[in-house]
Amino acid sequence: MATSMIGGLLAQDYPSDQIIASDIDSEKLKQLESKFHIQAVQDNNTALAAADIVILAVKPQVLQNVCTALELSHAPLIISIAAGVLATDIDRWLGGDQAIVRCMPNTPALLGLGASALYANSRVDEIQRQAAEHILQSTGITVWVEQESQLDAVTAISGSGPAYFFLFIEALEKAAVDLGLDPSTAACLTRQTALGASTMAMDQDVVKLRQQVTSKGGTTEQAIQSFQQNQLEKIVLEASHAAARRSQQLAEELGQ
After folding, report:
1. Do 205 and 165 reside in the same domain of the chain?
2. Residue 92 lies inside a defined structural domain of this protein
3. What is the distance, to the nearest Å, from the Cα of residue 93 to the centroid of all Cα atoms in its chain?
4. 19 and 88 co-located in one domain
5. Chain-wide mean pLDDT for the chain?
6. Less crowded by CB within 10 Å, the N or C end of the chain?
7. Distance from C-alpha of 53 to C-alpha of 78, rounded to nearest angstrom
8. CATH code: domain of residue 18
9. Residue 100: inside a domain, yes or no?
10. How many Cα neighbours within 13 Å face the side chain of 10?
11. Phi, psi of 12 (to 5 degrees)
């Protein structure tokens, strides 16, 4: 995800000499230096010494150790993309009184097609909000939520959502093979259909789109009725609530 953000910023003409990456993996740093021509160091404190914005792009399970090891001599904007870790916990680990933006991106950010939700604590000013938004928009669209708890819903929908669509594509491909198509044809038709449908859905009413395709007495109507009889909407609702609950549980576990 960090690589996607660096690439997105540079694509928007952000100066490469204003970006510093830090990682314990020297090989990764060499790759970043070679690909993006940015500064790369193995010490986090070296990287943040003069930074106005610090992006915490690490796994949630190691975030506490990373934060407590930082030596903050100034007050940069802190942006965390670690899922499930509350801003209050990050602030506590950093010593308190920090401007923190939490964001929940998703994997299509790797293609510049991400959907990210952002939450700012009370110490984040308007200039910092704009800066955080600019950074995340380098990987796709952004939305702000005013309550941190809403990030649990975001995690359940857009954060985890790509996997749901991958699962549906997988199931549809298997159905195509079961109906007699070879696997390569099944994959080609299914994935292009998913791309076309999602593209149409971006700027049109999905209910109307579905109704337009669903001719009375036709083949699509039979499939839709089967989905409804098997309670597809209930399945999606229950799955989304399960993901949101797990997001809440992770916040409690990681905060401890």
Report:
1. yes
2. yes
3. 23
4. yes
5. 94
6. C
7. 6
8. 3.40.50.720
9. yes
10. 17
11. -95, 20
pTM score over 0.85: yes
Give domain status of residue 229, yes or no.
no
Report whether 43 contacts 66 (CB < 8 A). no
Q: What range defines the domain where residue 131 resides?
A: 2-155
Is 222 contained in some domain? no
Token look-up 């999905």 returns 206
Token code pair at residue 161: 């959502």
18 has a pLDDT exceeding 90: yes
Q: How many angstroms separate the CA atoms of 45 and 33, rounded? A: 19
> How would DSSP label each residue in 94-105?
TTS--EEEEEE-
Q: What is the pLDDT of residues 134-188, one digit of tens each?
A: 999 999 999 999 999 999 999 999 999 999 999 999 999 999 999 999 999 999 9
On whether both 109 and 94 belong to a single domain, the answer is yes
The closest of 65, 102, 75 to 87, measured between CA atoms, is: 102
Residue 16 is given by DSSP the state G
Higher pLDDT, 214 or 73: 214
Position 114: which residue type? G
* Dist CA 132 CA 79 (whole Å): 7
pLDDT at 83 over 90: no
Write the CB contacts of 143 (distance below 8 Å, at least 6 apart in sequence).
Answer: 115, 116, 117, 118
Residue whose entry in the numeric block shows the structure tokens 């001719």: 215
